[in-house]
Amino acid sequence: MTPDNVDKFVDYVVSAVRRIRGMEMSRGIEKYKSAWKHVADKGFADLNPFMECRYNERCRSYDCQMLVTSVAVKRCLECVKLWRPVFNASKIREDERTLSKFKGNAYCNSPEIKRRVA
Length: 118
Ligand SMILES: [Zn+2]
Hints:
Number of domains: 1
Structural class: mainly alpha
Low-confidence stretches: none
Order of helices and strands: HEEEEHH
Shape: rod-shaped
Mean pLDDT: 86
Bound molecules: zinc ion
């Protein structure tokens, strides 16, 4: 390595570090924890194994990009895609929990009616 190359290399490393420092961690999905296991084909529970101080447990896509370019973009595109399946799984679980045998059929929505008939 020549002195010119060393300067270019250092400049390159400094610009890379600056760029990474300007990025944020993808937030993943921190809500609906009970539904995370129901989307195991698309995502996993990141239990923060390295005790990172910027986040705690959350669900991430298997293809999570981990870093996003700005604070305004909170989740990477892959975790954005995962949000709907997690949300839907949480609603199914919530419906299962809240359906009471004392609730009249007239007050049930269509998924509840289907569950009663089945
Ligand atoms: Zn992500």
